[in-house]
């Protein structure tokens, strides 16, 4: 199992959620976050205005998925979240050791 953390532009969240649902992703966690990339937050466009702040608003999506859907999920996120402008975001992938569904006690592949 893999965890995918995708930092994206907030206005892309609905599209990304829908595209992921379309390929059968059944759960995700979303947070409002702030961050910067290599432009250090300066001079990035957000909702048509040029922001001059240290941290720009972003949305973080976290998904834990089975290995066999990883590549498809990454393709969907990249294709849907890309505008081609700076600040489109970044995706981090890590291994997940264990997953437990609290209600049933099911684990791992049965629980994602
Ligand atoms: N190395 C990193 N570690 C953790 N979070 C990061 C890292 N790089 C980017 N982020 C997060 O992703 C958000 C978007 O980053 P961004 O797309 O600006 O990356 P970039 O490397 O500057 O690429 P680009 O040149 O396309 O803007 C940042 O605001 C931050 O929240
Ligand atoms: Mg950047």
From TrEMBL:
Protein name as it appears in the record: Nitrogen regulatory protein P-II
Positions of modified residues (O-UMP-tyrosine): 51
Oligomer status and interactors: Homotrimer.
Molecular functions per Gene Ontology: ATP binding; enzyme regulator activity
Classification via SMART domains: P-II
Native organism taxonomy: Bacteria, Pseudomonadati, Pseudomonadota, Gammaproteobacteria, Alteromonadales
Family recorded in the similarity comment: Belongs to the P(II) protein family.
Gene name as annotated: glnB
Alphabetized UniProt keyword annotations: Nucleotide-binding, Phosphoprotein, Transcription, Transcription regulation
CC per GO annotation: cytosol
BP-aspect Gene Ontology terms: regulation of nitrogen utilization
Annotated InterPro entries: N-reg_PII, N-reg_PII-like_a/b, N-reg_PII/ATP_PRibTrfase_C, N-reg_PII_CS, N-reg_PII_urydylation_site
SUPFAM superfamilies: GlnB-like
């Amino acid at each position: 199992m893999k965890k995918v953390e995708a930092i994206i532009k907030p206005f892309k969240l609905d599209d990304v959620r829908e595209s992921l649902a379309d390929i059968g992703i059944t759960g995700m966690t979303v947070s409002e976050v702030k961050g910067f990339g290599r432009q250090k937050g300066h001079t990035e466009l957000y909702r048509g205005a040029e922001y001059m702040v240290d941290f720009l608003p972003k949305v973080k999506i976290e998904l834990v998925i089975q290995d066999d859907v990883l590549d498809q999920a990454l393709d969907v996120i990249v294709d849907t979240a890309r505008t081609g402008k700076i600040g489109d975001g970044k995706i981090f992938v890590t291994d997940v050791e264990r997953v437990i569904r609290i209600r049933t006690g099911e684990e791992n592949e049965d629980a994602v």
